[in-house]
Amino acid sequence: MVKRGGLKIHWLSAYAGSNPVPRIMKKGIFGLILLSVASVVTAQLLLKKGMTTAGGFNPEQITPFFISAILNPYVLAGATLFILSAAIWLMVLSKAELSYAYPALSLSYVITAIGAWLLFNENLSALRIGGIIIVCAGVFALSKS
User: Of 30, 71, 78, 79, which has the fewest beta carbons less than 10 angstroms from its beta carbon?
Assistant: First the structure.
């Protein structure tokens, strides 16, 4: 229970639909969303690194490929971070409106693209950069709502 301007606001009042999520709670939830995004991005980059070191996919040798991938330390670390991210996301979902939280996950697309460009020399065309700018503007607008 939090007192604001003489009103008592219960942390779970957003579920009843009577009061919006308190601003203090939004900041904490957005921090958890960012932590989830950071772990997803790191997981993706680790998985990419692992799969580039595991070798290319050959349909004729599917079993050795998957064994090599599963035993790769980068792939294991990436999978572990995905599990951590899912746990963090469950905390977010327990407190935030899905329509507020889910669009913020699009930040992972932006950060992953930049990380892939920096770490793996992947191409970032003008069209991709334009898309990244649009995603960032949308997430900024969302965070202010």
Answer: 71
